[in-house]
Design goal:
This protein is α+β, with helices and mostly antiparallel strands. The chain has one domain: Structural Genomics Hypothetical 15.5 Kd Protein In mrcA-pckA Intergenic Region, Chain A (Roll), CATH 3.10.290. Helices cover about 20% and strands about 35% of the residues. The protein has 2 helices and 7 strands. A 5-stranded mixed sheet has the order 1-7-6-3-4, with no helix packed on it. Strands 2-5 form a two-stranded antiparallel ribbon. Strand 3 and strand 4 form a beta hairpin. It is globular and about 35 Å long.
Length: about 80
């Protein structure tokens, strides 16, 4: 049995591009690496493999990468 960890990522805007989120959250070391892992089908958004590097993520989306799950949320009031 494997346990999958889940982290909350808070964004300040309504949307963020997938490649930017990977880079800004430190999940990859560069924008180029973000594009490569997306092109290599290593990222899932809401349970489906995502190959669009500029996919707009919104509050409520979940991202799976490197055996971890990340949940996108907006700023808390």
């Amino acid at each position: 049995m494997t346990s999958e960890s889940r982290r909350i990522i808070t964004i300040q805007s309504d949307t963020i591009e997938l490649n930017q989120l990977l880079k800004f959250e430190g999940l990859v070391s560069s924008g180029g690496e973000a594009k490569q892992v997306i092109n290599d089908s290593l990222v899932r958004v809401n349970g489906e493999t995502e190959t669009r590097k500029r996919r707009k993520l919104v509050h409520g989306d979940s991202i799976e990468f490197n055996q971890e799950t990340y949940h996108v949320e907006g700023p808390t009031a």
